[in-house]
From TrEMBL, chains A, B:
Gene3D superfamilies: Tetracycline Repressor, domain 2
Protein name: Transcriptional regulator
Source taxon at top rank: Bacteria
Pfam family, one: TetR_C_6
PROSITE patterns recorded: HTH_TETR_1, HTH_TETR_2
Record's keyword annotation contains DNA-binding: yes
Lineage: Bacteria, Pseudomonadati, Pseudomonadota, Alphaproteobacteria, Hyphomicrobiales
Record GO terms (molecular function): DNA-binding transcription factor activity; transcription cis-regulatory region binding
Source species: Mesorhizobium plurifarium
DNA-binding region: 36-55
Keyword annotations of the record: DNA-binding, Repressor, Transcription, Transcription regulation
Length: 213, 213
DNA sequence: AGGCTATTTATACACTTGCACAACAACGCC
DNA sequence: GGCGTTGTTGTGCAAGTGTATAAATAGCCT
């Protein structure tokens, strides 16, 4: 009767990844409260005890899951800036477009982000992780902005540059949220179009083919 | 030994408010997971059983707490638009300023917002509540934008107006997040100044040369 | 003052939680 | 093939969870 469950031994890295993915899935679906070791283990296709074999405790698993999430998000976002042979302005537009379409616009990722970041006020570790991610992102923006303005023969000072980066960052973040939470209210590409126009207005760039007054 | 704890009978409305406030405090501090009936009751200065006397269950208390939070947030935000005797442009600037300073820029409120909104993907009730709040907010923005542009003798069509409202909403939301999460990185009034400039750029308004703060 | 009643406390209960640990079995190595 | 290592399971446990319910008492009405 007492037939023990069959199992396969997986590589350590694979198991850890599976557990982290299962954690993110659980958090996205039921929130931090619903992400119990048993739920997570079930989703990963193992039993609860195994978690403690790979992580010192549940809290550590959550930490690593959040780190993995952040890393994936920023990685995808920055990838859009990698185009070498484009003009600064094109690269900026591509950056905005990439951030306002799938897979970065995604309800599940947003749920995860919101759930974790909600604890940043109480958890200093989390707060610092966010701070660093945010500054890194803003720095990328500032670099491109500098290039765009340089290509237009404009010499902004540091404060001006910083303000532009903050504003553009806000535009992208704000539209990202709107898209994640109410994506079906926008036609495909609409958010990106709004974002590009707003960013170019912020930088005082002439609209390319403007019928807009 | 078995001295029963002294207590005072409070009015129903008062007790419900206290319990809701205690709930929001608990959620802000320890997240949804840490907001147990006992924690909440302790904070409200009562014992756990009393919660069930005022609310059918814990879930209902959380629902009402979220509703109360949203109501306070939108109420404060809209109040800034109430100035009757100002020009549309001044009212828009005041709106932006109000949304980018205390008490709307507040880490605790942000934590609450993020914690609750993180469950919008899974909880349709929550998602609808947010949707309505968001559309109401955007509508307010759209109305002021229409007035501002009208005062400048411009006649935007509906689509243009909608895009402006979406963009401005994004600017405010994005800067709100930055301010809540990293408020000490900005000097007082800086976010508001950035916001006003970005909004005016989005609308194509000539920058005022002067002492706006 | 003395009851009446609804508010409030206190206790109980079934269930879930994270974690500890012993038994087991999959897989590499000889 | 047998064997040892260790990844994996299953069970147990104390603490904590939401809820149910009985007992107590504060405050109003007369």
């Amino acid at each position: 009767m007492n037939a023990r469950r069959k199992f396969r031994r997986e590589g350590e890295e694979r198991r850890r990844q599976d557990l982290i993915d299962a954690t993110l899935d659980s958090v996205a679906e039921h929130g931090l409260e619903g992400a119990t070791v048993r739920t997570i283990a079930l989703r990963a296709g193992v039993t609860a005890g195994l978690i403690r074999h790979y992580f010192p405790g549940k809290e550590d698993l959550l930490q690593e899951a959040y780190a993995a999430l952040m890393s994936r998000m920023t990685e995808q976002a920055k990838a859009a800036l990698a185009m070498e042979d484009a003009s600064p302005r094109q690269r900026l537009a591509a950056f905005v477009t990439a951030n306002l379409n799938a897979p970065i616009i995604d309800q599940r990722v947003f749920s995860l982000w919101a759930t974790f970041i909600g604890r940043a006020g109480a958890d200093p570790t989390l707060a610092r992780a966010h701070r660093e991610g945010y500054l890194g992102f803003r720095n990328e923006v500032e670099t491109v902005v500098a290039e765009v303005l340089a290509a237009e023969q404009r010499k902004p000072d540091a404060a001006e540059l910083r303000h532009h980066a903050i504003a553009i960052n806000a535009i992208i973040d704000g539209l990202w949220i709107e898209g994640c939470l109410a994506g079906e209210m926008f036609s495909p590409g609409e958010l990106a179009a709004i974002g590009i126009k707003a960013v170019e207005a912020e930088l005082g760039l002439a609209q390319e083919r403007g019928e807009d007054q």
